[in-house]
Amino acid sequence: MQRTIQAFTAAVAATLLVTGAAAATLAAPTAACKWDHREFQNLGNSDYTLRFAPLAADDDRGMGGYLGYLSIHHPLRGQIYNFDVFQGNGYAVVKLMEHAKAKKPIHNGDASAPLELYEFDENLHMAAGASAQYVFIPRLGQTDYYSSRPADAKASIDPRDPKFRLNDNLWKFVGCR
Question: Which residue blocks in 90-160 are alpha helix, DSSP H?
Fold first, then answer.
């Protein structure tokens, strides 16, 4: 947990320094925006978007702590991740596990270890659900850096190239879908 807090603090400082964004100037999500319809933009590389989606109507996992899906998109790389979003009963940390139907497994050191997702309000205090203004996913940049995808190779895209690098940046709420 301490390493996660340190990583988050470093990401906040770097992101705010690079973008010049001030947390107080951001508009808060509206109450009408459901948790599973939110969209965020990467503050370190604005070409990336993060989208939440609800569980499919025929998906019976809603009772097992599954909250929905999260996907990450890039205009040239396409959809590069598709995660199941889940949360254990009584534990506040939201986890991301590669969706069972994804085409390429993720590699983040321990392929079986899920990524964690932390949500913050406009004052950078922990927030939950639709009120979150920021999202932070530790190790996502590392995961992307060391993963290789056939679509990237076909498009001659190297995720290690700084213009395509995902990094461990904050994601800012930009709207509802």
Answer: 140-146, 150-154
Q: Which of 44, 19, 11, 46 shows the shortest CA–CA distance to 174?
A: 46
4-34 confidence digits (pLDDT tens): 555 555 555 454 444 444 433 444 455 578 8
From CA 76, how far away is CA 54, in angstroms rounded?
25
Q: Which helix (H) or strand (E) holds 117?
A: strand 115-120
DSSP state of 9: H
- Contact at 8 Å (CB) between 12 and 44? no
Of 57, 48, 67, the C-alpha closest to 119 is 67
Q: Contact, 15 vs 149, CB < 8 A? A: no
Q: What is the pTM of this model?
A: 0.76
